[in-house]
Amino acid sequence: MQVDKMMTKKIVTVEMDDSLNVVKEIFDNVTFHHLLVIESGKLTGIISDRDLFKAISPNLGTVAETTKDLANLNKKAHQIMSRQPITLTEDASVYTAIDIFNEKGISCIPIVDAENKPLGILSWRDILRTLADNRKRKG
Q1: CA nearest 116: which of 92, 87, 96, 91?
Q2: Quick one: how far is CA 99 from the chain centroid?
Q3: What per-residue confidence (pLDDT) applies to 23?
Q4: Cβ contacts of residue 16 below 8 Å, gap of 6+?
Q5: From CA 139, how far away is CA 9, in angstroms rounded?
Q6: DSSP character for 26?
Q7: Angstrom distance (rounded) from CA 104 to CA 87
Q8: So what's the pLDDT on residue 139?
């Protein structure tokens, strides 16, 4: 089976110079864990919610919050993103994706076209969901 049958096609992207405040607002309002970072429509990096948590103060929104904590939200997406993410094309085999998940210890793989424009994102959860759905249909 190819990854295009399993990937999440509704992706959310941010630009390289978007602030961490923008990134935080997105993560605060969604249930997914990764944002794709683009420049001129092409994938340049990826930010996980863990990347964001490492970059901002745990005191945000508490009585211990300082102006320095708030200033951290002015950092830019490119300052915390993982650069040159491992990608696959939509015709890649799910087994190739599984090998990458196991070998690299990552939790998602951006799916891109030949020009490195994002088409979707594949997580190990997408694979498990597809397997479960297939089992329900057969059983």
Answers
A1: 87
A2: 19
A3: 96
A4: 37, 38, 39, 44, 45, 76, 77, 78, 81
A5: 27
A6: H
A7: 12
A8: 66
H helix count then E strand count, the chain: 6, 6
pLDDT of the residue at 37: 98
Angle (CA) 31-35-39 rounded to 5° is: 155
CA distances from 115 to 11, 111, 112 (A): 17, 11, 8
Decide: residue 110, CB within 10 A, 0-12 exposed, 13-18 middle, 19+ buried: buried
Task: Give the tokens for residue 114.
Answer: 């030949």
Which 3 state secondary structure label does DSSP give 74? helix
Residue labelled with tokens 């096609």: 9
For residue 58, the one-letter residue type is: P
Which is it for strands 13-15 and 34-39: parallel, antiparallel or unpaired?
parallel
Summarize pLDDT for 46-86 with one digit per residue, the tens: 999 999 999 988 888 788 878 888 888 999 999 999 999 99
- Residues of the chain below pLDDT 50: none
Q: Provide the strand spans (E) within 28-68.
A: 34-39, 42-48
The residue type of 9 is K
